[in-house]
Write the structure tokens for this entry.
Amino acid sequence: MRRATYPGAVNEDTQPQPADAEDEAVLALAHALLDAARQGDGDTLLPLIDQGAPVDLRDSAGNSPLMLAAYHGHAELVRELAARGADADLANDRGQSPLAGAAFKGFTDVATALLEAGADPHLGSPSALETARYFERAEIVALLEAPRG
């Protein structure tokens, strides 16, 4: 049997290889990090980040741990992630910022934590301010419109 050798030929050397155990372990760790953020489980998430896991890891929809913590109402975890360098303005694949997620859900304490971390209320599509106005989150609108030093 002759092996195809022209450019673009598919043979056993170019076939996709099955993921090895290390790849599977990395994927499992990534899922565990994102699940911990979603659940507000800082005891699991923060030590892994402190050991070098990427603080701005993203899921298949572009959500970072900070985005997931914000969207699920975990203000203290948001503060801890921001303190470890998480990007407070990192939008997901739909252009939504963590601050817009907090505004959508009505989490004033999370919005406060994100603003303290430097989040911009005008970023994203729709922006956090637009979201807060649309859903009539008066307390969050006031926070977002307040002058910052």
